[in-house]
């Protein structure tokens, strides 16, 4: 695992390349066997990315009209936010599942952020 990805501070700008690298590392865990500590470290970085992206995407969604799509986005973001409150799993299978889910959540949020910025 590289030490390239760092947990973002609240004031940091969204660095899509860094976030993508962290997502790649987390999803790569299915083909390698990192230690629980390595998984936990990547999970913590992902949590920071998710918090940062969640705030950005939620703010953009709030500016949209009350449409079906906006409501679906809000529901998904609520589920992602609830998942942030769960502690990191103690078992390796649970930890793997949580890191992968958090990576997918982060990937989804990054896609929405990137699509909005690209408009």
UniProtKB/TrEMBL annotation:
InterPro entries: DUF6415
Superkingdom, taxonomy of origin: Bacteria
Protein name (Swiss-Prot/TrEMBL): DUF6415 family natural product biosynthesis protein
């Amino acid at each position: 695992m590289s030490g390239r990805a760092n947990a973002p501070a609240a004031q940091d700008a969204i660095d899509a390349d860094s976030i993508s690298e962290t997502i790649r590392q987390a999803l790569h865990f299915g083909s390698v066997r990192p230690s629980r500590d390595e998984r936990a470290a990547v999970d913590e970085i992902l949590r920071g990315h998710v918090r940062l992206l969640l705030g950005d995407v939620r703010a953009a969604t709030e500016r949209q009209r009350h449409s079906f799509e906006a409501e679906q986005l809000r529901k998904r973001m609520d589920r992602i936010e609830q998942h942030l409150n769960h502690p990191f799993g103690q078992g390796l299978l649970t930890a793997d599942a949580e890191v992968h889910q958090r990576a997918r959540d982060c990937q989804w949020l990054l896609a929405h952020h990137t699509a909005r910025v690209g408009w």
